[in-house]
Specification:
The chain is of the alpha/beta class and about 280 residues long. It folds into two domains: about 110 residues, Rossmann fold; about 130 residues. Helix content is about 55%, strand content about 15%. It has an eight-stranded mixed β-sheet with strand order 3-2-1-4-5-6-7-8, with helices on both faces. Helix 5 links the parallel strand 7 and strand 8. Helix 6 packs across helix 8. The radius of gyration is 22 Å and the shape is elongated.
Length: about 280
């Protein structure tokens, strides 16, 4: 692949992919409805339309808000050359996957989800989720060509992807947004002066999540069909813990904590998790 087209290049991830492919020495055409934000650079060509951007590309990468992705994919496929790869990086797959399945036979659809943000270094080992569309082996080969050092996790269906992401990102972001809302009503400067490691790390995560584009946060919480049940479960569990905390019955609260700990220890060494947390904190200094 020598010619790359990025649709949505003015967004944070679109900009990341543009820089990534340019640094690899590839020629990149870019298009965005916010064209004024785009800046010409070596090996970057700014186009006036989706059609002009994709027509000569070996790989077209769509990086637009989730709700817009199916429409933009269909628009791209109208002008792409035979054998080109049409790919998207949305965080919710149930609609975009169906659109990729309907792509013309002369194109190679690729359904991926980069599990990193625009702050990632282009040299770090990244994790990519992939949902096979037509041929897992061939599509996996394309991903490794795009990201030579990537750790690729293949998920069997778009449903499995969205169910997993509902917890991994949807619930995680929801919990941190709620935490940030509470934090925003407090004296944050004073809290950080007196805080220890746990609060420092938790507030850092919450603050970082809020740097994401609002469209992404909304998509993860509202557009993934599986998030609702996990949010409802989270609120139910929070209410149960709050009830125990206010009941002045330490025995029930301790028993509940022990039960959760035993369940988690079946999957993860919690002492190892504790050590990893401090390793992360040390590396942040």
């Amino acid at each position: 692949m020598q010619e790359i087209a990025i649709i949505g290049a003015a967004g944070k991830m679109g900009s990341w992919f543009t820089n990534y492919f340019v640094q690899r020495g590839l020629r990149v055409s870019v298009y965005d409805v916010n064209k004024k934000i785009l800046r010409p650079f070596d090996n970057i060509r700014i186009e006036n339309s989706i059609s002009d951007c994709v027509k000569g590309a070996d790989l077209v990468l769509v990086s637009v808000p989730v709700r817009m992705t199916p429409r933009v994919l269909r628009e791209c496929t109208k002008s792409m050359k035979d054998g080109a790869v049409i790919s998207e990086i949305s965080s919710v797959k149930h609609r975009t996957f169906r659109t990729l399945r309907q792509a013309p036979d002369n194109l190679r659809p690729l359904c991926i989800h980069p599990m990193f943000g625009p702050g990632a270094s282009g040299k770090m080992q990244v994790k990519i989720l992939m949902v096979p569309v037509r041929n897992e082996e061939k599509e996996l080969k394309i991903v490794h060509e795009m990201f030579e050092n990537a750790q690729v996790k293949v998920l069997p269906t778009a449903k499995v992807h969205d169910e997993s992401i509902a917890i991994v990102l949807g619930l995680t972001y929801f919990a941190n947004i709620v935490f940030a809302r509470v934090l925003s009503t407090s004296n944050i400067s004073m809290l950080k002066q007196v805080s220890g490691t746990t609060f420092g790390l938790q507030s850092l995560i919450a603050e970082s999540i809020l740097t994401n584009e609002p469209d992404l946060l909304v998509a993860l919480i509202q557009e993934n069909p599986y998030v609702k049940k996990y949010i409802e479960q989270y609120v139910k569990e929070a209410s149960a813990v709050a009830k125990l905390a206010s009941a002045n019955d330490s025995r029930k609260l301790k028993a509940g904590l022990k039960k959760v700990r035993l369940k988690l220890e079946k999957w993860q060494d919690l002492q190892q998790s504790y050590r990893r947390m401090y390793n992360i904190i040390e590396n942040l200094k």
